[in-house]
Amino acid sequence: MFLWLGIKFNNLTRISLYFLYLLILVGGIVRCTGSGMGCPDWPKCFGKYIPPTSEKQLPSNYKKKFLDSRLEKNERLISLFSYLGFKKLSIKIANDPNIRIEEEFNVYKTWIEYLNRLLGALVGLALLITFISSIFRKPFKNEVVLLSFFALLFVMIEGWVGAIVVSTNLLPGLITFHVLLALLIICIVIKSYFISTINSQFKIGNYPKYIYYLLILSMFLFISQIILGTQVREAIDYMTNYSKSIDRNNFIENLGFEFLIHRSYSLLVLMVHILILYLIYKQPIKINFLKNFTFSLSLLVLLEILTGVGMAYFSIPKFLQPIHLFLAFLIFGLQFYLFLIIRANKYKTV
Fold first, then answer.
1. Do 151 and 245 fall into the same domain?
2. What is the span of the domain harbouring residue 247?
3. pTM for the structure as a whole
């Protein structure tokens, strides 16, 4: 059986990556529907492995019960962060009034969050099987095994961070860290897949060195853009939950400078991708795979900008939010994959 798993490593890695992206899409749906606190505890949901379908199935004091439990967990969390030297974060958690909010049962939000957690567990299982497969893969490669191990490890850490996010009632800074860790996991899985599948299609000849550096720049710019996007999202969440006097139609005009930078910055990101596309098409080497790949990447960046424009001009419609998030992760994954392809080839000095 284990030898069979070794043979199927490439397929398992690809399946794990599909599950990761599906989890990101579902996570976006959780955010846009406000279902992040649909289950006020973790890993159970309202104290059950299978959540209730009616408030009648819960004790009369369930709000206070789960709030007290969450506050108790936060006390331990505050002590841990203080011990590790994160005193500012500890103070922020301790003084955040949001963590003292009692959560009402909503069957739709509960089951959306529960399905999100089930999918998260499925991702963990897929990466565990992939790690076992990497050990029995032929030929054996230490790098592939280590990457598979770290993908599994970081997914477990991501699950723990998710528990903290729930415990702290979606504390803003932790949400940003949650997103960045997800990006790291995707990079690890893509790198593992790339190493295990590298073949003649990646032998694209010599490309100018500046294309390689432009790809690095594009990834740096896009990560910065994602961070700005999470900050904009956190500001919108705050207005949704605590600024009832602000109408949703006026959310955009009440956002801070982060939104203005996020909006204008997107044009710079698009320009860099168009430049990379132009430079690759300009090369005498005829590699249709690479040219089509880069063209598709540029189109996705344009589509990402259009979804952002749609949210800005149509009062942030909920159906666009998970699409915008999913496209961001998809673009970064493709950027990283293209970077690996270019780096795998010797580039000429210009």
1. no
2. 200-350
3. 0.90
